[in-house]
Design goal:
A hairpin with a 4-residue loop joins strand 3 and strand 4. The N and C termini lie close together (9 Å). The mean pLDDT is 87. This protein is α+β, with helices and mostly antiparallel strands.
Length: 99
């Protein structure tokens, strides 16, 4: 997948990116391309792959490592909001084809 001339590498078993507005399926495209507000804090950068992104082999999808590691309910709700979990895909990048 290409982003402004850059190539992002996605796990071969990752699900295809959903259409904008469709439910998130863990494709990882958005988090690989650039970190969300939580990812900016964790990754200490505004561009490039989020350091918190994790591949779940059991689920064959990407997950947010920060959200997965959070146990406090209030903090979990806050992080869920910050990463827009459950809102739907807001990534308008499109695949240019697999190598």
């Amino acid at each position: 997948m290409s982003l402004d001339g850059r190539v992002i590498h996605i796990h071969a078993d990752a699900p295809p990116k959903p259409a904008v507005g469709a439910p998130c399926n863990g494709c990882g495209v958005c988090c690989i391309a650039e970190p969300c507000p939580v990812g900016i804090i964790v990754s200490l950068r505004r561009q490039g792959r989020c350091k918190a992104l994790r591949w779940s082999a059991d689920d064959s999808r990407y997950v947010c490592g920060v959200l997965a590691a959070t146990r406090l309910p209030l903090l979990k709700r806050l992080i869920t909001r910050w990463i827009a979990a459950g809102v739907g895909c807001d990534c308008d990048l499109e695949a240019t084809g697999k190598p």
